Amino acid sequence: MAVIEYLFTNETEIKINEEIIKKSGGWKYASLLLVNQGLATLAFFGVSVNLVLFLTRVLDQDNSDAANNVSKWTGTVYLCSLMGAFLSDSYWGRYLTCAVFQLILVLVLGLLSFASWLFLINPADCGDGTKMCRHSSSVGVCTFYLSIYLIAFGYGGHQPTIATFGADQFDDSNPKAADSKAAFFCYFYFALNVGSLFSNTILVYYEDSGKWTLGFLVSLCCAIIALLLYLLGTSRYKYITCGNPLTRVAQVFVAAFRKWNVAPATADALYEVEGPESAIKGSRKIPHSDDFKFLDKAATITQYDLCGRKDPWRLCTVTQVEEVKCALKMLPILALYHNLLCHLHANGIPFCGARRCNDLKTGRFPLSSSQHVSFRHLQRSHLHRNLSSNSRLTELQRMGIGLVMGMMAMIAGGVTEIQRLKLVRPGEKKSRLSIFWQVPQYVLVGASEVFMYVGQLEFFNGQAPDGIKSFGSSLCMASISLGNYVNSLLVSMVMGTTARDDSPGWIPADLNQGHMDRFFFLIAALTALDFIIYVFCAKWY
């Protein structure tokens, strides 16, 4: 009787667990994550979108210095995504990683709001383009930089994990799961655009008029609401455990290096576990390929491997080796795009609006220096909906089109700058050129982002092995950080080369004395070179 009672109890527990699994995840809880993404993006961009203006108006930095500082900061944001992916896959899991990094974001937004009110915005409403702020104390400046870099840490660590955690909410055993995941990524990108659109319209309006602390407080409230909504689904999220891809990648390289003098075995003689499942938890087996044959040494069985126990740092499976090969083939494609886009984010938006064109007003509502970027967000949302329903273009083709559109955007920016300089009155800082001249370049950049960002997201999730899909999201963001650091280096090199003797350089404090148009055309030329390399890599892939 005791045995029967024990079996009955276990069977009941199994049925209960299966019922809980069936009720967990799905669109209901994935939608919570989409709203969370939109609010977190609104909070982040409420700080980042006007950061160059804050540095120039409140902290009194030069244009080139402010652009360099923002490029480095933005690069740090996306570089932190690697930290988030590592902690997610290795130790904490995706749910806890998202919760911890969002909590960090909330706390430091509070610190930034407090620091700006107490130390930086003095007198009140200064930094609006007309009222100058007093010199900030070293304590205030240090607190400000500590705050924004912790914001980079919080938002950067949260971003790649929340995307993968949202895709986890759909059961792979369901035939419709693949379509649901594809739709989720589409809505994920849409949520990002909605959050960014609101920050570029509502929040920027207050910040541009000198109400910086109010803008930061609104970002703080959005982050708090995002965190509470995220915690609301705790008991019903679907949780998936996965291994650490960084460790597996390191094992392949270490094992191949240890067998440097060993000739790689033939495909049928390489090591692989028995059965349909791979040794990597949650990953299917991957057949052998002939690329990067030197890595096959890691799966080559030697006499030492036969005699002793199987050491993963000396002998790896074919699936593990192919996982690394796949990542190596994708890296050039992921790293090629973001320099031109990061240039526009760091330099184009604040320079174009605040210093290049006149303050256009519609009725009593002024179009601020960053709000005109909303054209880009509206274009992205519209184009993304059309692109999502059209699958005739491959992911690689979409990314190529995105590069071409990005190059065209830089050319449009250069032409606009030439026209702006022609309409500058002597003795005045602002040009008579309408700010709507900038709409074409932002429409082109918006289209470029849709083709590139969505193409990359679908490409990596479709082509990457099961075991590195979450790490792939962080690689996409890490490539953005690379673009920002390259952009920062490029600005420094351009100013170091052009600002000599009596020449103010291409990007001086007074842009009317410089040649931003030449800088735009330089970016366009580099993008053309980038496109040629991309075509070669895409054909090789």
UniProtKB/TrEMBL annotation:
This is Major facilitator superfamily (MFS) profile domain-containing protein. Keywords: Membrane, Transmembrane, Transmembrane helix. One of its GO terms (molecular function) is transmembrane transporter activity. It holds the Pfam family PTR2. The chain crosses the membrane at residues 32-55, 99-120, 135-155, 184-206, 212-232, 396-415, 435-454, 475-499, 519-537. InterPro entries: MFS_trans_sf, POT_fam. Belongs to the major facilitator superfamily. Proton-dependent oligopeptide transporter (POT/PTR) (TC 2.A.17) family. It comes from Gossypium darwinii. It is found in: Membrane. One of its GO terms (cellular component) is membrane. It comes from the Eukaryota. Its main location: membrane. It is a multi-pass membrane protein.
